[in-house]
Amino acid sequence: MTKFAIYILVVINVSIWNHKTIGINSKYHTFNVVLKDTTITGKVIGIMDGDTFKLLTRDSLQIKVRLANIDCPEKKQPFSAKAKQFVSDAIFGQQVTIHVLKKDRYGRSIANVIYDDSLDLSQELLKQGLAWHYLQYSKDPMLQKLEDQAKKEKLGLWQDNDPIPPWEWRRNKKKRTKG
Asked: Where does the pLDDT of residue 9 fall: very low under 50, low under 70, confident under 90, or very high at 90 and above?
């Protein structure tokens, strides 16, 4: 067994025991694995879009986080920039707590995010009309109620007569690209 393989095994065992987070950096390899059903606190160091950001843990690991149960407008969609700005104003440079539910196919940690001690970021985006409740992945009646209230009050993206959900936008974009 090589020294690197032994190093990986030791780091994985220590990391799982201590933090349920695995992070390995060497000259040739970088690994960052967050196990599901894990709660992690860290500082937000980057905002990708309205529902994705980078978190830096106390162990200096970077985790790409995707908000659970909602979907914000895609880039070039109306209200995309506003959703991103809302998230930036709320959490950039701040300590947040994430409750990881699972990993997605892109390796992002799908998580519920708590900031300012008690605010749920997904709920706050829905309240402002800056996200859709992602029914394909969530049946949470509270989230649906928040979306319905924002629609009723014509907040954010609900000001448009017929806003296009991001999952339809992505599907239509793929069709345009292939066609």
From this structure: very low
Q: What are phi and psi of 149, to 5 degrees?
A: -65, -40
Distances (CA, A) of 18 to 13, 34, 50, 170: 9, 12, 31, 39
Do 111 and 101 touch, CB atoms closer than 8 A?
Answer: yes
Look up tokens 């000001």; give the residue: 159
Instruction: Categorise residue 161: left if φ over 0, alpha if ψ from -120 to 50, beta otherwise.
Output: alpha
Active site residues: 66, 74, 108
For 38-51, what is the mean pLDDT? 97
Stretch 132-157: mean pLDDT, rounded?
Answer: 96
Residue 122: alpha-carbon gap to chain centroid: 9
With a CB cutoff of 8 Å and minimum separation 6, the contacts of 8 are 24, 31
CB atoms < 10 A from the CB of 56, how many?
Answer: 14
Q: What is the pLDDT of residues 81-95, one digit of tens each?
A: 999 999 999 999 999
Asked if residues 143 and 69 have their Cβ atoms less than 8 Å apart, the reply is yes
